């Protein structure tokens, strides 16, 4: 479905960055959307993707190839203050449990995982929301504590504790949280086993736990836990080691 609305200015640039204020509350609407500007910047077409509802006669979904089926966590329908949220304002979870697998090697049935926000195909099975993902779209596996700080990254991904933003400008002016620029460096908390090469061997990441690294500004997926910022990036987004 495509809805076009008039705008008086050019569409803003969209970055690949994915920022999430909490583990299960990414900064995205409850339904993912793709935006593109029409010629001349006069209209923007918004294409809304809804979950595919399977007919009732189908009771099971068996992933094929390197795909997994994840049962998505229940959507949070209330704000932290207890206010009931409308469907279009509720935050969409990006975590769930693996309930089906194809030919995969990094995860197992029952694992609680976090996955890329815009990845996969949403499918409704027996009234429950699921998502079909490639194994490579799974960011990491949650431990029993469910804490991001203890997440086990998969593949060549790296979990970094982000450095805190400066509260004052170079001129000594106190900055608001909105105007303070987020630093693009931090401390490596954990690393995945590495990316599998074409010959089947695994190439271990060339970064060490505890090291401080600089990474691409618009890369990765951000999370917030206990007022601390974390980001999960691919090894290829690491720019330099700092010392």
From TrEMBL:
Q: Which InterPro entries match?
A: Chaperonin_GroES, Chaperonin_GroES_sf, Chaprnonin_Cpn10_CS, GroES-like_sf
Keywords for this entry?
Chaperone
PROSITE patterns per the record?
CHAPERONINS_CPN10
The positions making up the signal sequence are none
Regions that span the bilayer: none
Q: Which GO terms describe its cellular component?
A: chloroplast; mitochondrion
Q: Name one GO molecular function term.
A: unfolded protein binding
What protein family does this chain belong to? Belongs to the GroES chaperonin family.
HAMAP family in alphabetical order: CH10
Q: What is this protein called?
A: 20 kDa chaperonin, chloroplastic
Q: Which organism is it from?
A: Chlamydomonas euryale
